[in-house]
Amino acid sequence: MYALVESESVTKIFSYPKGFNLGDIQYPSDIFIKWSTEEKEAIGIYEIVFDNSNKKDEKWYINTNQSFDFADGVVTASYGTATPKAHADTLWTQQDSDDGDLPSDKEVGDVKVEGLKTQLIRTLKQQVAGILADTDWYITRNAEKTTAIPSAISTHRDAVRTKQASMETAITNATDTPALETLYTYTEQDDGTVTRPLGELPTLES
């Protein structure tokens, strides 16, 4: 990406090479490729340097739009301070009702906007359902034919549910969005393994 700098200020951003007018002169798009850095900068065209130090994972944060600044002969694109996404649900309040904003199918105290915790726990439940579905046929066969469920299958299913409960507790007890992010962040351990504080759902050994 390039920027046009006029009177020490960024006046135009070029996401891709294209022709443009500058004063009474029309420049073709190929100057971005054919001209040297010095030739482009002589007419105010600078390649943008990206500063992503403030950019955060969009799963957990809302990033600002980029701002473009020119200083010391360099155009820099940077982000402002990211805002953590809400970790808890936002609820409909009595004030919403008094203001006439409460939908007819909602009551005070109902969820207005789901927070990350609700979303993450729902995803976890879906993952657990998918894992258990792989061995549901043992349960169906037992119900229909009274064929015994192998102990390894019962142990596995119990382990999945136990781990699910502990993971849900960890998510629920997280105090804020950074704490949730930490639960899901993988780091390398001393033994070379890569793990996350939340842990993993058990898998069935073949």
Can you describe this structure?
Helix content is 36%, strand content 23%. The chain folds into three domains: 2-83, no CATH class; 85-114, no CATH class; 115-206. The protein has a five-stranded mixed beta sheet with strand order 2-1-5-8-7. The chain has a two-stranded antiparallel ribbon with strand order 3-4. A two-stranded antiparallel sheet has the order 6-9. The protein is elongated and about 90 Å long. With 206 residues, the chain is an alpha+beta fold.
What is shown here, in short?
The protein is built from 7 helices and 13 strands.
Report mean pLDDT, rounded to a whole number: 96
The count of β-strands is 13
Most strands sheet: 5 strands, mixed
* Spatial strand order of the main sheet: 2-1-5-8-7
Span from first to last CA? 51 Å
Tell me the β content: 15-25%
Secondary structure: helix percent: 25-40%
- The dominant shape is elongated
From the alpha carbons, calculate the radius of gyration and give it in angstroms.
28 Å
pLDDT < 50 runs, ≥5 residues: none
The class by helix and strand makeup works out as alpha+beta
Domain tally: 3
- Element-level helix/strand string: EEEEHHEEEEEEHEHHHHEE
Q: How many helices?
A: 7
SSE order and pairing:
Layout: E1 2-6, E2 9-14, E3 20-22, E4 25-27, H1 31-34, H2 37-42, E5 45-51, E6 61-62, E7 67-71, E8 74-78, E9 83-84, E10 90-91, H3 94-98, E11 111-113, H4 116-133, H5 136-145, H6 151-173, H7 177-184, E12 187-188, E13 194-195
Parallel strand pairs: 5-8
Antiparallel strand pairs: 1-2, 1-5, 3-4, 6-9, 7-8, 10-11, 12-13
Helix pairs in contact: 4-6
